[in-house]
Amino acid sequence: MKALSIICYFSIFLPIVVAGQAPDTAALHAERLLQGYAEVYGFSGTIKMVKGGAPFFEGSYGFADRSFGVPNTAGTRFSINSISKTFTAAAVLLLAKEGKADLYAPISRYLPELQATWRDSVTLHHLLCHSSGLPREPGVQVCDERSLAEQAEQLVAPQRLLFPPGEKYSYSNSGFILLGAALEAIAGQPYDVYIEKHILGPIGLGDTGFYRGRAVVQKQATPYRLSPQGLAFTERSKHYGENAGGGMYSTVSDLYRYARSMARHEILGALWGQRLFTPYFQTGETDREGYGWSLKDIGGKTYYFSAGSGYGTKSVILYEPLQDDFIGITSNWGNTPILPMLRGLFLTLQGGQPEPPQKSQLAKPARYLHALGEYRFPKGELQRHLGTDTDSLTLQAFEGKLFLNEELLAQKADGLLGLTYTEELLIRATEGQIILQINGFTITGERVGP
């Protein structure tokens, strides 16, 4: 079941003025912050922070394998999901540098068998900067084991464009399927083999690689999430087939080496490397989009940003090239509030002292034992207001905390429940009903089971 999705528009990074601190003191504030996220949200994963090219903080939390109590370590490999797109973008630019690909040629030049009405109007450039007009998702299923070429022909080609290519930015996983298929056609070798040989190997990323079907990956953290039946392990990637938009794993140390190498143009050279981080679209007051990377303007500096999210995984990297500052988070717990975590760590890197989350804000399951269970809502209402793909939600307790599906609940005023990071959704739980108040709308779910 798709996780409950509340869309909140807010700036991850707010302008601040902070006093300088000794590095050891600042690192202690980072450790205190992360301990709060571990205690309140159950954070499980690894953090790496670098300031001025020097180690600032590194720590691991939770378990790589909960069944056997195997802890996460700095060497644990995690799914990086959509951060994989930055590797695909770099590989396509490398082919362009070698004169094998023209970024402004139509996709039909490289995939002539593609039976799509837009095959002569969508270019590699459009795909790289998410301006092709293709829908976000291709409809691939978890059990699919299709090749990139099969995905392109069977899933992407039938899709209709949502707008003319180049008109605006609109994130598209479908587009990166085409990039992966085109890369293979141009390079004359498998997508993963090309990137291993030309990017991973030269940079020395020994803990970074590709998922290949169901093949075992050594030192891999098992992803976990909450299901209506309680804690569950889940897929490490969104499907078993080739995945140019999200099928890689890595460690935070490898991701730091990778981000630094890309920023220094070690693989692509200055002319082509700069194109990765050239802003092609403005997507927010301080946000712009390059090829596979986002650019965030904070305090007069430009940071390179990429993030990924899977069924039970979260990952994010933030790199400032002039000072060689870096923050990387990898997690194998689906309930990780990764962007608020990133903001807090960013503040500590700047010398701030953000307050860690407190358990006192959380709802106490003992008060709601009478209301635990599954609730069914009128058909389509949850999809319309919360973005879920079913008509039911489950109120459940786990590790002494209260959750609605996978969302951790906080105690609000007047006996109401809500999410920990927004006031948009308020919840009243009774023995037979759950009443949701969101953006001026009220919807009621009836209890159908324990």
TrEMBL record:
Keywords annotated in UniProt: Membrane, Signal
Protein's name according to its UniProt entry: Beta-lactamase family protein
SUPFAM superfamilies in alphabetical order: beta-lactamase/transpeptidase-like (SSF56601)
Main location: membrane
Domain Beta-lactamase-related: 35-329
Protein location: Membrane
Keyword Membrane: yes
Species of provenance: Phaeodactylibacter luteus
InterPro entries: AmpC-like, Beta-lactam-related, Beta-lactam/transpept-like
Ion transport in keyword set: no
Span of the signal peptide: 1-19
GO CC terms, sorted: membrane
